[in-house]
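Memo to structure team: turn this sequence into structure tokens by end of day. - J.P.
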Amino acid sequence: MDYENDTAWVRKMLYPGENLLWTGQPGKIRIFEKKDIPPLIFGIIWLCFAGMASWKIWTSPNRGFSSKLFIVAFLLVGLFSLTARYIVKLQTRKARYALTSQRIITKVGNRIRTLDLCNLPPITVSQKADGTGDIRFGETVSSQRNASGLNFGSTRSYSTGAVLELQSIPDVNRVEYRIRTAVEQALAARRSN
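Reply from structure team:
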């Protein structure tokens, strides 16, 4: 791929004095993984029950339009649980990422999101055996708490979603190092001004 064409999307968004440090895109994204099995099973079971219920309602002469409309909603929830994660994965394949001297920028379709390097939320990196991995900004895991919110008894871990995520990055450790170096340089530049 031509470097100039690959970076054209981000070059037109640069602020005066902002330099492009790195661009990337997801490596190979697996459409189906082990972690997809539970939602897939749930979606299949949900669709089976909704299908049986809808058949019963649609063939019953005593059911009104509102009952039929209600069961259609259940069918749509089942279809959504089966297909949503795969649609997101297909969109992620087309994602583009950029690191500048001031920001981290992601582009997925027409949606562009940025984070200021001087105000980055906590960074979490997960790496696979082949060196690819994900970099998440803002994902935090709270302390272990039980369902009542107290720190005794049975525990569960609660987490919040990432503010921004760079997914399936080849050589993720090198990219993380570049981001951390850029953050240090941006903070130093801000302090000197």
